[in-house]
Amino acid sequence: MDKITLYIVVPCYNEEEVLPLTSKTLKEFVEKREELSSASRVVFVDDGSRDKTWETIQALCAADSLFAGLKLSRNRGHQNALWAGMDWAKDKCDCLVTIDADLQDDVNAMDGFLREFQAGADVVYGVRNKRDTDTAFKRLTAEGFYKLMERMGVSTVFNHADYRLLSKRAVEALMQYPEGNLFLRGMVPLVGLNTAKVYYDRGKRAAGESKYPLKKMLAFAWQGISSFSAKPISLVWKTGLAFVFIALVFGFIDLVSNAFNPGFTAFSVWFVGGMLLAGTGLVGEYVGKTYFEVKRRPRYLLQEIICSPDKGRESIKND
Question: What is the fold of 6-211+299-315?
Fold first, then answer.
């Protein structure tokens, strides 16, 4: 059987503390797997880091041809960094795996990914067995996120983040989706093809701090909902109809009995006014997304690409 050329795509944002351990761990994994060809690579994608992440990637690439580095021209976010790495790697490998740099995802689960790939799977999802390493708040919000996405009609894999294997065919199919508002956890299931799941235990972050505080988590959740579901807009007009009905009921009671004092009337005006503004803002969010989609701006720009030392360095300057 022919050996597999695997590319491991690792998005990095301010990861200088953990990169030495991450690179060592991934290097050991690749070199110990006899089914992997010597053309396999670990691709670090620097998402506009402010620390010495890129300098660390440069040093790794200079020391070992296993590593390659992509530097985005500026910070474009985790999803765009993943997309950039997959886009660059898709023509060079048989399959690729996306994994975060913090080593919370069990690297050895990739053995299961490769077995499923060899058995014919085009998409293999890494799924967490449990969330014991999370705080109670993180566990509650994460599980609530997946349930909310399901209620909104968004097809996702429960307890799956962005740790997955994609065959070359699956990546090429994914790249045909033109939207700029990326939410890969919802986009990958749309590809279809043959899928499988590999379950694993997630550990603690190896070093450094989490790059997903609560504010970013909420923004990411809204990105997923607004990119894949119009139900929030439907909820707005249904709420509006409910308020019209309530207003008619209260108006009738007020007319008959004159039981409501001005204070209640003022409260109701403020309440309904606030709901109207919130509804208008929600619809505006969708209009804004459409506005940016129509512009068709690039998802990312590469500032520099570092291949193996024998291939030299390619530098791209963007005006």
Answer: Spore Coat Polysaccharide Biosynthesis Protein SpsA; Chain A (3.90.550)
